[in-house]
Design goal:
single chain, 286 residues, alpha/beta, Rossmann fold, 4-stranded parallel sheet, 9 strands, 14% strand
Length: 286
């Protein structure tokens, strides 16, 4: 298991955020930056921006996890909550607002630097730590992690197996592969796995279309079970979006593997309210 849940901001997203912001031109820095996020990208941007002396504006859905929201504010970001529950509608509105402001939009996934930082550096570390690995399970939302990761893995190991794990109710990659084009917007769905909700990026699809070998579609109940299993078996708290890869293993939906497998656990940022929903009511005192 690759524990990106132990990253400084609680998820892999800090990788792409720091890489992207470190490459801004002086003109882009003066114009200021803005982004849209379900939570983890925003937290990564806020952390990297503080390190680099920037103050970002971050647009989030109204369904954003409270823990992620508080963390972005604590890191000094200006956080604007939309009236939309889903990510796709929030980003469409945010892009209009950002264009009017003249600020520089930083995509949470559909950007080459974000892909390289989030997925590429992660894949390099995995191959360094587990050089014998030949199969990889990744969560897939907008595709930034999976595109960067699969691009590097397939360059280094053309015969490797890459499995993308998606929310059953919002399968942007599956629908994109079936239609032959990027499905960039999907109807909002109610889910605790906000990082997996919504459509796929156009740029990420061009990478993924020839590099994903299988897709595992995971239900909300299976995600809950994945979070509980990690706590029970390993005493690690992971967030629902990260539990999709665990659930794919527990249910057998990831398929069979004949070579060493690496399971990417993307983050741990989940508020107490959602934790209580997943774990259920406390046992009565005996």
């Amino acid at each position: 298991m690759k524990l990106e849940s132990l990253q400084v901001t609680g998820s892999f997203k800090v990788r792409g955020a720091l890489w992207k912001l470190s490459r801004l031109s002086e003109a882009e820095r003066r114009a200021e930056i803005a982004t849209c996020s379900a939570g983890n990208h925003g937290k990564g941007i806020a952390w990297a921006a503080r390190l680099l002396g920037l103050t970002p504006t971050i647009y989030v859905p109204k369904s954003v996890d409270s823990a992620k929201h508080r963390a972005m504010v604590a890191l000094g970001a200006a956080v604007i909550v939309s009236e939309f529950a889903g990510y796709d509608d929030t980003e469409a509105w945010a892009r209009e607002e950002i264009e009017k402001s003249g600020k520089v939009f930083v995509s949470p996934f559909d950007d080459e630097d974000i892909m390289a930082g989030n997925g590429g550096t992660l894949a390099l570390e995995v191959l360094e730590d587990v050089p014998e690995a030949r199969a990889f399970l990744l969560p897939v939302g907008g595709g930034g992690l999976s595109a960067g990761f699969s691009f590097l893995i397939k360059e280094k190991l053309p015969g490797a197996t890459v499995v993308g794990c998606q929310l059953e109710a919002s399968p942007g990659l599956k629908l994109s592969l079936e239609s032959g084009r990027a499905v960039t917007r999907l109807p909002a769905v109610e889910t605790v796995a906000g990082g997996l909700e919504g459509g796929l990026g156009k740029k990420t699809f061009e990478v993924l279309r020839t590099r994903i070998d299988r897709i595992a579609l995971i239900s909300e109940d299976e995600i809950f079970a994945g979070v509980r299993w990690m706590l029970e078996a390993h005493q690690y708290l992971i967030e629902p979006s990260a539990a999709a890869t665990v659930a794919a293993c527990l249910t057998g939906k990831a398929g069979r593997f004949d070579a060493p497998l690496v399971v990417v656990l993307s983050g741990r940022n989940v508020g107490l309210e959602i934790q209580r929903r997943i774990l259920g009511p406390p046992a009565s005192n005996r």
